Amino acid sequence: MSKNLDIINNSESVVRSYIRNFPTVFTKAKGHKMWDENGKEFIDFFSGAGALNYGHNDDSMKEKLIEYITKDGITHSLDMASDAKADFLQKFNDVILKPRDLDYKVMFPGPTGTNTVESALKLARKVTGRTDIISFTGGFHGMTIGALSVTGNSMKRKGAGIPLQNTVTMAYDNYVDHDTLVYLERFLDDSGSGVAIPAAMIVETVQGEGGINAARFDWLQKIEQICKRWGILLIIDDVQAGIGRTGTFFSFEAAGIKPDIVCLSKSLSGYGLPLAVTLIKPELDIWQPGEHNGTFRGNNHAFVTATAALDFWKNDNFEKEIHEKSEIIYSFLEHLVADYPQLKGEVRGRGFMVGIASEVEGFSGKIAAKAFELGLIMETAGPNDEVFKLFPPLTIPKDELQRGLEIIEESIKGLIKEPVTN
Amino acid sequence: MSKNLDIINNSESVVRSYIRNFPTVFTKAKGHKMWDENGKEFIDFFSGAGALNYGHNDDSMKEKLIEYITKDGITHSLDMASDAKADFLQKFNDVILKPRDLDYKVMFPGPTGTNTVESALKLARKVTGRTDIISFTGGFHGMTIGALSVTGNSMKRKGAGIPLQNTVTMAYDNYVDHDTLVYLERFLDDSGSGVAIPAAMIVETVQGEGGINAARFDWLQKIEQICKRWGILLIIDDVQAGIGRTGTFFSFEAAGIKPDIVCLSKSLSGYGLPLAVTLIKPELDIWQPGEHNGTFRGNNHAFVTATAALDFWKNDNFEKEIHEKSEIIYSFLEHLVADYPQLKGEVRGRGFMVGIASEVEGFSGKIAAKAFELGLIMETAGPNDEVFKLFPPLTIPKDELQRGLEIIEESIKGLIKEPVTN
Amino acid sequence: MSKNLDIINNSESVVRSYIRNFPTVFTKAKGHKMWDENGKEFIDFFSGAGALNYGHNDDSMKEKLIEYITKDGITHSLDMASDAKADFLQKFNDVILKPRDLDYKVMFPGPTGTNTVESALKLARKVTGRTDIISFTGGFHGMTIGALSVTGNSMKRKGAGIPLQNTVTMAYDNYVDHDTLVYLERFLDDSGSGVAIPAAMIVETVQGEGGINAARFDWLQKIEQICKRWGILLIIDDVQAGIGRTGTFFSFEAAGIKPDIVCLSKSLSGYGLPLAVTLIKPELDIWQPGEHNGTFRGNNHAFVTATAALDFWKNDNFEKEIHEKSEIIYSFLEHLVADYPQLKGEVRGRGFMVGIASEVEGFSGKIAAKAFELGLIMETAGPNDEVFKLFPPLTIPKDELQRGLEIIEESIKGLIKEPVTN
Amino acid sequence: MSKNLDIINNSESVVRSYIRNFPTVFTKAKGHKMWDENGKEFIDFFSGAGALNYGHNDDSMKEKLIEYITKDGITHSLDMASDAKADFLQKFNDVILKPRDLDYKVMFPGPTGTNTVESALKLARKVTGRTDIISFTGGFHGMTIGALSVTGNSMKRKGAGIPLQNTVTMAYDNYVDHDTLVYLERFLDDSGSGVAIPAAMIVETVQGEGGINAARFDWLQKIEQICKRWGILLIIDDVQAGIGRTGTFFSFEAAGIKPDIVCLSKSLSGYGLPLAVTLIKPELDIWQPGEHNGTFRGNNHAFVTATAALDFWKNDNFEKEIHEKSEIIYSFLEHLVADYPQLKGEVRGRGFMVGIASEVEGFSGKIAAKAFELGLIMETAGPNDEVFKLFPPLTIPKDELQRGLEIIEESIKGLIKEPVTN
Fold it and tell me: Do D108 and C12 touch (CB under 8 A)?
């Protein structure tokens, strides 16, 4: 075994996880490619679980980052003012918010997804004076106690070691055969239901960790209407589905809804650096100064790359490109399901956030393992890891995308030839 | 007003805080100095609230970071293996753990202080099967619901919008006139006390946000004994006091105790980049793979600078240097208290984590404001911001330290001449 | 106003409730009749909300009670042994448990419904080591914090003043148009649902306070199967529906299920005296001695009358009689719904636990008020008091039952002649 | 073994407790005496754990009760009006409240101690909008989840099976060697303490179950002042200490304080029948009608005997008599401690609520067991059952009191002769 792998396996807590599926030591990355210490090249269909939508080490961002570091720009600033932060806010307003007719205030809640979720939940409770949050089956929002309490996965919930409180789980779209919102509305409408009108609902438009479940647009629209009817705040957790992953900057744009609070992180910095924002409708921005704080809210390196990354959104070209490539992916997945009935597969997802759920127990994991052997990095998702999940960088060239898809097909073929047992 | 400041004040959530005390736009930083967009120079006695113990943009780390970025080293890796991570783990073991006879497993819980605290609390509950955590008056551990539940500040607690549960607050050292541990032991010893044997106690050896309260070594030793007696895990939250701030790498070294779990963040990366680790006694490392995860656990830029920063600890020189300079600071503070009785001041703290609590309401804030005018950045702390807090970089040259102290004295003199009213 | 009414209205807390609907002072009661201080006679279709299934002051029980008091039998005994308690246990085993092939252990949890519910929840959590309880929409289980946490009514829940925790509400039978158990099973089956496998489900076979909702037998059977499949304890709260109210001693007999834990109170003592038992499958009876206690567990007067009341169940006659009379009631209600379309009524319930839900807002309350004027006591139920609820004593003679039903019809006729407005 | 005892031991849940200490079947009781089925006579120094302060089956109450039952008075009335209830309220106002210059509204919260405690906690939270309750070490308030959350005993708390929340435990008087209120005030005064200003404090003036701890009057007065200073409601749980047990009707009279809410039960009905009231300052009586309800709030048999029992308080005679006899008891206990140093005893308590805490492990239990053999019923208390507890009826004749005390001394003598080992 590699000395480096050895060090990690001996020193790092057993909680480590991805290293178990991708047991090699990576040393270099560019765009959609990664290389390990043996020089083996991989196509990355994982993209840092959605944190690398623009691929690895984008040259334009890299240049600006090195320049900033070189000139001794402020690295760490808490929530003091820096020019890098002002530049980011200006451009985020100009390129993202204004063209979409959004006027959110921007909160820096700490640099990770779970930080933005926690800040959203706290603010929703503060604004409404209510305690409960409605979350949805299959939801994933983070590992700190507040975010974990709205996360569905039972193994992760048990990790809390305490009962998780002040939340109610409702059925996500397509959870059962009939309209799940009938159920939700009945609970809210009936004062004897035992379910209180909540402070907020927290929703992913497409659930990543939960198994690549895409809510229909009209389901999302009805959720927005239900929230309005009862004065419930609508929080869209766009940490994984946002920043282009489903085809638009915000994943909810296509549904035509305007959430009260939006959580962004992962690909926001563009370069894979920790950054998160919580977007808040101005009338809800009633925090006390410092009521929520944190040491790494002012990660200026991330401001610099995030600002550069916004260039992708200055016009429609990037959206169009994502759209074209996502059609390729989708067709490919439909082909797999149709032509490999042994998969017992179902295509899931939207845009670049797609996968196939296989009813054959353990099969998705085997496909991902085989693909890794063949030089493609791909994750599984879902409560039983039943989905293999395609998360290429949005910037991947079409031919390379094609090459990645072929590796997947090759992996499946190989497994079907082998007897599929558990 | 500056256009940049304008952008921030208009776009950022009202939760922003430090910008209110330091209302200028910073553009450059080096060592113990910062410059704003007008070219004004400041001495930094704040150090990113303890995240910049080695000062800003240290040249050695900077060089390694630029080199790493230039060669397209892995930036973001979740918990996959990277050479940068292996290097960090190896050096952390060699330079920090082994020489101190510690054999902790290293968990990457997400890159911020609140992440490491949450992971520590979760693990302690999981290991013991108990639910309660004992925290201490004046404690500060973070803003996510788990960490907030062990934080004392009432304004921040109310920000949760829900009752904070599964914790018991006990009196920190010197909280009242007699030994606070008599009380603690009585509660634990008495099965009718209503206080259950907790999973863990979480302790800061010196409380930063709580008002620069330093626990005596024998108090800490007794805490360790009490924990052992009842099978309670001892968590030292060394996020602010660690990495040299009190004179040694871990703040608890001088007390001769060995915590079960240690939380590190802030200055761990050396360069102000988001990084945190949770150190766990091997026998307690019973996580399920992936039971606690997070997107930014593999912040390789931070691994690179953190590895470089460990050079400071290869021998005793740095500790000695800290010690010498902290004596200067301490003498200065004693001089202030003695010679400016109008302060009604009390010297607090240890090492480079010191301050003066002034009984005159609002006076500490005025001193900090005055010092800012005169080119020195300094924060207040404590439940009523009654403490002005000296947090220079550990690396500050003696003459510059002296210059900073003089600005403080000048600020006080100026205020005493003015009528001190509220 | 009556002096007595005056005293009560001035001295008793504003929380008083039934006195507002029945504003007179009662002084005497016998069987199905009550008299007020003015000598006005009322037919009682309320039966102490199900606590007086055998009517008021039954002569046989009365005789035994007076005899016991006269001879200075033990009145209050905590859980010391008394002959009255032994007699009750013996007869309860002989007349109730054995013939039904049930071998429950009998716990005296305190003398009220909420006491038995609390003990059941505590035991279920203790036995399983799990924290959550699944309750159902429309459920009513009591006013203490544990019981309130499984109660649906939002006004009563808010009365807690704290968030109610460790419970999940699921849809009762007929809550929506499709099978509610599809939802329940999906939530339990999916490890990503956010709903943990609970310690227990607590179910009323017919919901009284929730609006006289009767679950179908096959729904109850499926609930039992679901509980078995996942090792969930099934608690039947038979406080209101038990002791003959639905036609059999236990309300669940007709459904052919055997709960793990049964809660009984209300009519258990027969005479309206406070008494409750928690019936526990022997293998679940793992309490520590004294782990749940209470001052009034040994209410021997209630033991005496409860023992006497069991005579009703020595053979099938009483069940047959209940059945015959309940058919009369049911036919009458169907006639009302059919012949008074202005009611927009729906017949609800089973046995002697029936009512009509009227879609006309406030109408049910008006019917009850009118009936009170005409000498009949009757309650409303449901989240919006939309149901008028017929709860005559099971022992009411047929002609008197008929007379009561006529008063109801007369009340409706009177109201329909009047313009029905709100 | 007795057939009756057999039935109970086989049929009743293992949670049964007192029957284990007093393993015989009681059949008759009068005043301070009980008889078992073998005709053995016992002196009762237990008094139903304080529910029988007037002794068993008092003739005057008995007569009124039989008369009421005979004439078919209302037995069960929920919170409808009855003449028996009006009579009780009138006399309670006339004899108890007015002479003491108290104008409480009377709530019937359900007939047991835990019901009144739950109602008090709910109301305090509702009135203040705060969630926390401060309780005290050694406190005992009941077994339902709300009351259990303010109870100290760890075995009973664990019985909940869930973490008990929204409460903070503070040290009762004499819990440590210095003034415990210094701590309490410091916690409340310091906004960084982690302890929120609570809705209420719940206090027993003398703790029964907690080990017969009597708070000093000036401690209680300071508690009242602290509550006033911070707008905290003061709840006195007088369930065990009230109704004359400490020498006055309310136990807090001698301390000169006026609680905001008072909980009464146990001896309130006089005859051992379930009854409880919650007394509420009029301005705090802001319940919604029916917001807290319960089936057995209208236990009219208990109203009848409670009304009769108030005759004891029509003048000072009863108080004087209690005082005289309690001096006898106290002197006797001091004599025991002085003359039997083997006891390592400490006298505890006030009035008729006294005992001796023995440092010799298990000794108090042995004394109680020996006394039972010799015909005296007496309980132990305290977290480790280290206190033997003298709770004779207040009405016991002096010579019989003396006889009971002699049995205790005899028991001790007998044990000292035997080798005292565990």
Answer: yes
CA-wise closest residue to C92 among C274, C318, C277: C277
Q: Do B196 and D165 touch (CB under 8 A)?
A: no
Q: Which residue in C has a C-alpha nearest to residue A185's C-alpha?
A: C176
Are the beta carbons of B291 and A156 closer than 8 angstroms?
A: yes
Predicted confidence band of residue D421 (pLDDT cuts 50, 70, 90): low
The torsion of the CA quartet D337, D341, D344, D350, rounded to 10 degrees, works out to: 0
Q: Which distant-in-sequence residues (6+ apart) come within 8 Å of A316 by Cβ?
A: none
Strand order in the sheet with A200-203: A105-107, A277-280, A261-264, A233-237, A200-203, A133-136, A167-170
- The SS3 assignment for C35 reads strand
Write down how long chain A is. Answer: 422
Chain D residue numbers touching B154 (CB-CB < 8 A): 191-193, 196
**Residue from A152, C382, A286, C83 nearest D2 by CA:** C83
Full DSSP string of A159-207: TTSS---SEEEEPPTTSSSS-HHHHHHHHHH-TTSS-PPPSEEEE-SEE
Over residues A361-387, mean pLDDT: 96
Alpha-helical (H) ranges within C71-153 are: 83-91, 113-128, 145-148
| Chain B to chain D Cβ contacts (< 8 Å) | 108
Q: Which of D108, D37, D156 is nearest to D292 (CA)?
A: D108
Q: Domain boundaries in chain D?
A: 3-58+317-416, 73-313
Q: Which residues of B touch C (CB under 8 A)?
A: 162-163
Task: Indicate the CATH number of B73-313 among 3.30.70.3040, 3.10.180.10, 3.40.640.10, 2.40.50.100.
Answer: 3.40.640.10
Contact D14 C285 (CB under 8 A): yes
User: Considering only alpha carbons, which residue of chain C is nearest residue A196?
Assistant: C154
d(CA C82, CA C65) in angstroms, rounded, equals: 15
Percent above pLDDT 90 for chain C:
97
The crossing angle, in degrees rounded to 10, of helices A83-91 and A300-309 is 30
Chain A residue with Cα closest to C193: A137
Average pLDDT, chain C: 97
Interface of A with D (CB under 8 A): 162-163
**pLDDT, tens digit, for every residue of D18-40?**
999 999 999 999 999 999 999 99
In this complex, do B274 and A296 lie within 8 Å of one another by their Cβ atoms? yes
Interacting residues of A315 by C-beta distance below 8 A, sequence separation 6+: none
Instruction: Compute the distance between CA of residue D262 and CA of residue D253 in angstroms, rounded to an integer.
Output: 12
Q: Which of D256, D394, D393, D253 is nearest to D317 (CA)?
A: D394
Q: Which fold has domain C3-58+317-416?
A: Aspartate Aminotransferase, domain 1 (3.90.1150)
pLDDT tens by residue, B315-336: 999 999 999 999 999 999 999 9
Q: Nearest C-alpha of chain D: how many angstroms from C252?
A: 22
Residues of C in contact with B162 (CB under 8 A): 163
- Other beta carbons within 10 Å of D256: 10
Residue D167, amino acid: T
Report which DSSP code applies to A92.
Answer: I
- DSSP track, D68-107: HHHTT---B-TTSEEHHHHHHHHHIIIIIIGGGT---EEE
**Average pLDDT over every residue of A143-162:** 97
Give dist(CA C275, CA C280) in Å, integer. Answer: 17
User: What's the Cα-to-Cα distance from D241 to each of D136, D141, D203, D215, D248, rounded to whole Å?
Assistant: 16, 12, 11, 12, 9
Mean pLDDT score, C406-420: 88
Q: Output the pTM of the full model.
A: 0.97
CB contact under 8 A, B193 and D152: yes
Is C132–A163 a contact, with Cβ atoms under 8 angstroms apart?
A: yes
> Which tens digit of pLDDT belongs to each residue from C192-244?
999 999 999 999 999 999 999 999 999 999 999 999 999 999 999 999 999 99
